Hints:
Strand order of the largest sheet: 1-4-5-10-9-8
Number of domains: 1
Structural class: mainly beta
Order of helices and strands: EEEEEEEEEE
Oligomer: single chain
Strand content: over 45%
Radius of gyration: 13 Å
Number of strands: 10
Helix content: under 10%
Number of helices: 0
Largest sheet: 6 strands, antiparallel
Shape: globular
Distance between the termini: 22 Å
Amino acid sequence: MQISFDPNSIIPLENIGNIYKSVRLVDDWGILESKNNGAVLITEDWKYVILPFANSIKSYDNVEETESWKLQLKVSNK
């Protein structure tokens, strides 16, 4: 996993994890990016990413996108 973020925008939640207002995660499953000051919670054990509720999600190709985050899933070549 690769992560890039603004270190000045992190909000720690004791015994839960950290909220990142500006983050980009890249892993085997794809790319997750926050948008428009959207917050993403990464749990303390780094096992889960929790995204904010969205009134609507746009889906196209391998992308799921809301006002506050964008998820681009990798396509399996199996």
